[in-house]
């Protein structure tokens, strides 16, 4: 095909299908009076080839394990994904849903959301995240295939297809992930790049003039090109076939398109992020031979052709199920394990492997205790797969039960991410999105900021992803304020649907892993110490599930000291230096404490008792739980860890002096008047990923 529709009075069925995608995209965005019509219109032929011909999927079985995975990385063009899902027969996107595009509480939100629309694999929109998720999904497929496939039984045998635009390839996260994908030789990853030379500001000549092909060749990818992807479906299909045949490299196909193809403003940034306008929409329809007055029109033969995909999908699933039955008969143990993993179930009695500790046991850094707990779980949970951003010796994340995942050892469960925190986080989300995998990723807590968009999307999407963040405070010492986290703990606590753990010792570290593994759709962040910490009396694995609990109890105490992580043992020692009685509360996870009944919270934080919080982090949030907070108000300092903590007053002696000074002044008024705390009155919070009441 050329670059314009066939100039005959009778359009071919394929031309009519592509024209329908373009006119429907224009209608969907126009009705919403908001959105991005240009990319869907430009990518119509690519979408037609993928959904109409290439991809293996079943609209009536969107959770089918054997399907090809699809990622719309340029998530702003989601009108395209929604309308394709409708055309091929997904129950989750009706014509009414298309008409509600971008409306509050609709199943067709402004960017794809994994939990909102059945059949969406990953939440995209923040550019670069989707293509990076796809790298994780491709890693997952090759690992699961290497682990479970047997002669004659290809249980895992799918491709991961991506549509992306210029914006995705400009974002640093994509560079990180695609570099790793090339190193790993992910032959079943196929990216179709909508090469239309337009971004929001205008032509890519303003800011993006690199040779993308040469860049990806340098990464180790196969680079192909389709010079006219507006209509030349044969060339698009031929390129995909070449991509499938290259088993040792991922492939990117540069598809030259015209953004907003068919609009009067085609080829300009004017069609990127705004509706075309009624007049232009009518013109588009006339240009493609449709009635200019009809809205949301799908010719009968077009719908009929696409709906055949649902029947084809049912047959694929039936054939696959038959194969799985044979596999189950021959390999019952492996089949049962796959079923358990994809049902998000844990092995029987799994929590019994978590180590417990008693007072007097050796003082150990919680990062090391984390390594012990992680390895105990990994030995019985093959779904635990992950790695570190080139900090394995520091993060203590090496798996003793498994070797590295590399191109020639895809059965390995330990990933060497290199110094690529952001890519690592997004790849981890992709591992979880594939199914059957619980990812863990690790770096220093300060550098969670390098990967925070991926942490946020894990929370928004419901990815059970364990972020292992070591070197959690001033206690890291000589690396200084560039590496000493201050605000990061509160940033994570403020994010919905993330559990932020800061364990005080071995029992609490095991407890944090226990709660993290029990989650269905909540990610967890573990903030762990570099310095050794004592095993405390009163801590427990089960106590962590309450969020905060009493570890040293006094009747009618002069004050309650509430702390997290390494500061808990500091408070225990500080209390011994002061006259009076002090109850000590450990709060390993504030969010879990907020979820407890009011009665329990009042028991932990009793009325008319001054409460003082101690944490080597920023104060934000503490005044919900405490009348006074000994916290960091500046950045840290370089020096020996113990010297840094002494300088800022976070030693038993320093804490005791600060507590006494406050109790002798402001604390007297609190004791006398009994000022209440929000934590004593707030209704229990609820973590609910499905908080939207969809219409």
Number of helices: 25
Choose one word for the global shape.
Answer: elongated
Helicity, as a percent range:
25-40%
**Beta content:** 5-15%
Span between termini: 41 Å
Strand order of the largest sheet: 10-9-11-12-14-13
Runs in which pLDDT lies below 50 for 5 or more consecutive residues are none
Over all CA atoms, what is the radius of gyration?
28 Å
Strand count, sense and barrel status of the largest sheet are:
6 strands, parallel
Structural class: alpha/beta
Average of pLDDT: 97
Number of DSSP-assigned strands: 20
Summarize the structure in words.
The protein has about 700 residues and is α/β, with parallel strands linked by helices. The chain has 25 helices and 20 strands. A six-stranded parallel β-sheet has the order 10-9-11-12-14-13, sandwiched between helices. Strand 4 and strand 5 form a beta hairpin. It is elongated and about 95 Å long.
What is the gist of this entry?
By secondary structure, the protein is α/β, with parallel strands linked by helices.
What order do the helices and strands come in, and which of them pair?
Elements: H1 13-32, H2 38-42, H3 44-54, E1 69-72, H4 78-88, H5 95-99, H6 129-148, E2 160-165, H7 166-170, H8 172-184, E3 189-195, E4 198-199, E5 202-203, H9 212-219, E6 222-226, H10 233-245, E7 251-256, H11 278-287, H12 300-330, H13 332-342, E8 364-365, H14 366-378, E9 384-388, H15 392-395, E10 414-416, H16 421-434, E11 438-444, H17 452-461, E12 466-470, H18 488-493, E13 499-501, H19 506-518, E14 524-528, E15 532-533, E16 549-552, E17 559-563, H20 566-576, E18 582-586, H21 590-594, H22 598-604, E19 611-614, E20 628-630, H23 641-647, H24 652-663, H25 666-673
Parallel strand pairs: 1-2, 2-3, 3-7, 6-7, 9-10, 9-11, 11-12, 12-14, 13-14, 17-18, 17-19, 19-20
Antiparallel strand pairs: 4-5, 8-15, 16-18
Helix pairs in contact: 1-4, 1-11, 3-4, 3-10, 6-8, 6-16, 8-16, 12-13, 14-19, 16-17, 20-24
């Amino acid at each position: 095909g050329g670059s314009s529709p066939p100039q005959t009075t009778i359009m071919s069925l394929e031309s009519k299908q592509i024209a329908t995608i373009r006119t429907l995209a224009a209608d969907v965005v126009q009705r919403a009076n908001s959105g991005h019509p240009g990319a869907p219109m430009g990518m119509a032929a690519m979408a037609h080839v993928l959904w109409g011909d290439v991809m293996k999927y079943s609209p009536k079985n969107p959770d089918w394990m054997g399907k090809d995975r699809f990622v719309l990385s340029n998530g702003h063009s989601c009108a395209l994904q929604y309308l394709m899902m409708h055309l091929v027969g997904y129950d989750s996107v009706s014509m009414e849903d298309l008409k509600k595009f971008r409306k509050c509480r609709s199943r067709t939100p402004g960017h794809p959301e994994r939990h909102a629309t059945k059949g969406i694999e990953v939440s995209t929109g923040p550019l670069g995240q989707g293509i990076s998720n796809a790298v994780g999904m491709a890693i997952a497929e090759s690992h699961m295939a290497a682990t479970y496939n047997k002669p004659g039984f290809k249980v895992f045998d799918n491709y991961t297809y991506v549509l992306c635009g210029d914006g995705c390839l400009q974002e640093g996260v994509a560079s990180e992930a695609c570099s790793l994908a090339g190193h790993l030789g992910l032959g079943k990853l196929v990216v179709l790049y909508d090469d239309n030379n337009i971004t929001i500001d205008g032509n890519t000549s303003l800011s993006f003039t690199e040779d993308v092909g040469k860049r990806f060749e340098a990464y180790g990818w196969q680079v192909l090109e389709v010079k006219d992807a507006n209509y030349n479906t044969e060339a698009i299909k031929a390129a995909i076939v070449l991509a499938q045949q290259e088993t040792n490299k991922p492939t990117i196909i540069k598809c030259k398109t015209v953004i907003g193809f068919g609009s009067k403003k085609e080829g300009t940034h004017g069609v990127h992020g705004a509706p075309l306008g009624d007049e232009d929409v009518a013109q588009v329809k006339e240009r493609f031979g449709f009635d200019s007055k009809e809205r949301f029109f799908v010719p009968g033969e077009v719908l009929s052709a696409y709906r055949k995909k649902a029947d084809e999908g049912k047959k694929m699933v039936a054939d696959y199920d038959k194969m799985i039955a044979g596999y189950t008969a021959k390999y019952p143990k492996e089949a049962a394990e796959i079923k358990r993993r994809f049902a998000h179930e844990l092995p029987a009695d799994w929590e019994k492997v978590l180590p417990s500790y008693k007072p007097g046991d050796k003082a150990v850094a919680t990062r090391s205790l984390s390594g012990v707990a992680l390895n105990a779980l990994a030995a019985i949970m093959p779904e635990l797969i992950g790695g570190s951003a080139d900090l394995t010796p520091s993060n203590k994340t090496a798996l003793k039960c498994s070797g590295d995942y590399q191109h020639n050892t895809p059965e390995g469960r330990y990933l060497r991410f290199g110094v690529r925190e952001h890519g690592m986080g997004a790849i981890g989300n992709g591992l979880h999105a594939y199914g059957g995998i619980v990812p863990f990723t690790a770096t220093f807590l300060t550098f969670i900021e390098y990967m925070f968009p991926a942490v946020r999307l894990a929370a928004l999407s419901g990815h059970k992803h364990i972020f292992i963040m070591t070197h959690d405070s001033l206690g890291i010492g000589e690396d200084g304020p560039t590496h000493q986290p201050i605000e990061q703990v509160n940033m994570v606590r403020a994010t919905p649907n993330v559990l932020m753990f800061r364990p005080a010792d071995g029992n609490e570290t095991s407890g944090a892993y226990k709660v993290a593994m029990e989650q269905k759709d909540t990610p967890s962040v573990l903030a762990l110490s570099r310095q050794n910490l004592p095993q405390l009396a009163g801590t427990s694995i089960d106590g962590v599930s309450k969020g905060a609990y009493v570890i040293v109890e006094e009747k009618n105490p002069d004050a309650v000291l509430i702390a997290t992580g390494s500061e808990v043992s500091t408070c225990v020692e500080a209390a011994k230096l002061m006259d009076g009685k002090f109850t000590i509360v450990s709060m390993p996870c504030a969010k879990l404490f907020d979820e407890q009944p009011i009665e329990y919270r009042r028991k932990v934080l009793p009325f008319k008792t001054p409460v003082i919080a101690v944490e080597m982090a920023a104060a934000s949030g503490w005044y919900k739980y405490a009348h006074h907070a000994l916290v960091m108000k500046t950045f840290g300092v370089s020096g020996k860890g113990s010297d840094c903590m002494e300088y800022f007053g976070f030693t038993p002696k320093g804490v005791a002096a600060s507590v006494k000074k406050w109790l002798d002044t402001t604390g007297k008024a609190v004791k006398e008047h009994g000022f209440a705390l929000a934590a004593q009155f707030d209704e229990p919070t609820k973590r609910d990923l499905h908080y939207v009441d969809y219409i």
